[in-house]
Amino acid sequence: MSIEIDHVSMEFPLDGGKAIRAIDSVNLTVQQGEFVALIGPSGCGKSTILRLVAALERPTFGRVAVEAAEPTEVSRSHRLGVAFQDHALLPWLTVRKNMAIPFHAARRPVDWKRIDELLALVGLEQFANARPAQLSGGMRQRVSIARALVLRPTVLLLDEPFGALDAVTRRSMNMELQRIWSEDRITTLLVTHGVDEALLLADRIIVMGGRPGRVIKTIEVPFARPRLPEIQRSAAFHQLADELTLALEPEDN
Ligand code: ADP
Ligand code: MG
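Above: the input record for the complex with adenosine-5'-diphosphate. Below: its predicted structure, written as tokens.
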């Protein structure tokens, strides 16, 4: 198992010394080479789960392991590729130099060829020498995804990476991500709002509910790979999309 979240609860302190339980006894695993999508309403703890796996938080209760080790260990050895919503591109550096940051952090020589390949892959080769402020939000997201891949991670964590993209760009990025994933079989945990995106990309979809955040449903996605956008027109796709949308609806209305 590549990512293992074992009975993890997370509490955050409230004013007055009390604590609020943000996630409650979550069990979740991602097998090596598996692509898992995490969906659920806003505030149910999806980003907290990614932050736990990335060693940016520690669980209040329970255990998190990545490649059978402490998350901090995996993070320190730079086997983790991370693209979170708040893509921390440095405004004073060019796109290409922003892509080099992981090499500096890992104290490795910068592989400019790899950087240029990835920029081409996300369709930004013409913007290599632009600064982040000259790019659209969607383009900046593409840079942060490309940057997450630059050190050839074995585990990839993506937090709503396509949120700011228009539907057409989003679809083509979905197809690119599927291709990258199929080549290297990176163990991937993707947080997304898109039911269609989850069905298109994931081997398994985990649906979370809120207050406190918990796992409410797991769906195995049965479609063969490579998956073409056309599968979205199949009856099986529609049925699963309906099932997921229903699971996402609040229970208390
Ligand atoms: P999601 O990504 O699913 O929208 P989050 O993981 O961001 O949800 O947040 C889950 C819950 O935990 C929310 O209620 C949020 O307010 C709370 N939370 C997250 N991080 C912190 C923090 N650092 N301090 C206090 N509360 C937090
Ligand atoms: Mg979030």
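Notes for the reader.
DSSP finds eight helices and nine strands in the chain.
The chain has two domains: 1-79+155-172+183-253, 87-152.
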